[in-house]
Design a protein that fits this description.
disordered N terminus, two-stranded antiparallel ribbon, mainly alpha, 497 residues
């Protein structure tokens, strides 16, 4: 997946999860060496030679060099994303951008603790097949029609977004379940359209659209909240995030009905009944005491996340504390080796590096310099024109970055500073612009969950564009028509700084 080979295959693991692995593990593409060379050429050019004017001091120049190095690595796939994340603080320190404590601070931040704790919780649930149990239980409510199955998959994705913190992890959980449903579909052209709709929407779109609702539903959320808290003093935690983004739930039924209309699958039926789901649930057996206690710990964590404004417990502390409780003797301590194998360590390393880069932007005030450069391209115009222009600009610039986390880490400090420079509300302006990034559905490479769906081989890039691009346009319109009035209603009018 990280560039070892252009061909991917979906491999199902013993735990029920799936991974996308290169078909050939020894094939090293020459483009990787070119990408790595280009990254370091850009790094040294910015650091030593490129004439960027006297506005940049040595710390800002080094921060910009590291940022462009990371972007080049992400676009070319020259290094695994985990290694690129780990390399960022190293380069920040050795290039003189920041001190060592600041360079590595992203890995000890509340954001990093929240992510690693949430990943441990998600892996623990996976070890006991509780994530699969939740999904199958919700699916069992569906009628034996493709539209009903699609609806329940979307509902299941939304429900599991509370406890599974990465959209790519949710997509991986649902892919084998959706493929099982696809096997029940009638043959022919109608069945092919239904398989495309189920894979694209139930695996990819549903994971994406559920993500922005909850702070822990997607890793970009915690980066945005971290930066707004750090840079604008916003005090956004779990409940505040949910309240700010609650109307985004309205995009989920829009996505559902658009899928039905676009693929014309309202009347597609199944060759067989939903016996497969009943069989799979029976294989899991009844809940035992360990399962019930584990779910109780997760429920406690969700309650503490939601009430953090009153308890003054940080979300990271709650996540790590809940993860520790799950491994008490008698619960999941005996599952550690299995959980360790399926932990998303690489995603955590990527996110930690991304947060380090965001911190460096703020500490060195590189974000201020970049926002001033961008301001020259923004006309003196109404706030609505500026808002839409910022969204379109970001969508164009982020097409080559095969990582939602990477693009959000790069643009968040710039967008927050740009809002303050333009004398707009940093919370509503930044969340509106950056939330659209979660709905970047022009090509499946823009968001990893859609890449998981694409690896199934059920649809092409062109078919994905025709289904996904209108949803991106709808999301932009929704931000203007629904979210901006909502934010103004609850005290964050975009036109007031």
């Amino acid at each position: 997946m990280e560039g070892l080979s252009p061909d991917l295959e979906v491999v199902q693991q013993d735990s029920g999860t799936v991974e996308m692995l290169p078909v050939r593990h020894v094939d090293v593409a020459w483009t990787m060496w070119v990408g790595l060379a280009a990254a370091f050429a850009i790094f040294f050019a910015v650091l030593e030679w490129l004439p960027l004017g006297s506005q940049l001091d040595m710390h800002q120049r080094a921060t910009l060099a590291v940022t462009l190095w990371a972007c080049t690595i992400w676009i070319t796939g020259a290094l695994p994303k985990a290694i690129s994340g780990l390399s960022i603080p190293v380069l920040l320190y050795v290039s003189g951008a920041t001190s060592k404590s600041v360079a590595f601070a992203g890995f000890t931040s509340n954001t990093s603790l929240l992510v690693i704790g949430s990943f441990l919780i998600a892996s623990a649930l996976n070890a006991r097949h509780l994530d699969r149990r939740i999904a199958l239980t919700i699916m069992s409510w569906a009628k034996p029609k493709i539209s009903s199955f699609l609806k329940t998959y979307i509902l299941a994705q939304t429900a599991t977004a509370v406890i599974i913190p990465a959209i790519v992890a949710r997509a991986a959980i649902f892919l084998p379940i959706v493929q099982g449903t696809n096997a029940l579909l009638e043959p022919g052209e109608k069945g092919q359209r239904a398989r495309q709709a189920m894979t694209m929407s139930a695996v990819g779109f549903a994971a994406v659209f559920a993500g922005p609702l909850f702070l822990t539903g997607s890793m970009p959320n915690v980066i945005v909240a971290h930066q707004l808290n750090h840079q604008a003093g916003a005090h956004i935690y779990w409940f505040q995030w949910f309240w700010l983004n609650l109307p985004l739930a309205g995009l989920i039924p829009i996505m559902y009905f658009w899928t039905l209309r676009h693929f014309k699958i309202q009347d597609v039926g199944l060759r067989h009944g939903p016996e497969t789901i009943t069989t799979e649930r029976a294989k899991l057996g009844p809940l035992n005491l360990t399962d019930k206690l584990s779910l109780g710990v997760v429920a406690l964590a969700v309650v503490l996340w939601a009430t953090g404004h009153f308890t003054h417990l940080s979300t990271g502390l709650v996540a790590v504390g809940a993860a520790c409780l799950l491994f008490l003797p008698g619960l999941l301590s005996g599952y550690w080796q299995r959980i360790e194998r399926h932990m998303m360590w690489g995603v955590w390393l990527l996110l930690g590096g991304a947060v380090c880069m965001s911190n460096a932007f703020t500490v060195t005030k590189t974000n201020v310099w970049l926002s001033h450069q961008l301001q020259h391209f923004f006309p003196t115009a109404d706030w609505l024109v500026l808002f839409i222009l910022a969204i379109v600009t970001m969508q164009i610039l982020r097409i080559g970055i095969v990582s939602n986390v990477g693009s959000i880490a790069l643009f968040t400090p710039i967008i927050v500073t740009l809002a303050m420079t333009l004398h707009l509300n940093p919370v509503s302006f930044s969340m509106g612009v950056l939330n659209v990034d979660s709905y970047a559905l022009l090509i499946p490479l823009e968001i990893e969950a859609c890449l998981v769906a694409y690896a199934s081989g059920e649809f092409t890039f062109g078919e994905f564009f025709r289904a996904g691009a209108p949803l991106t346009a709808i999301a932009i319109l929704y931000m203007v028509v629904v979210m901006i009035p909502w934010w103004a209603l609850i005290g964050y009018p975009i036109w007031q700084p």
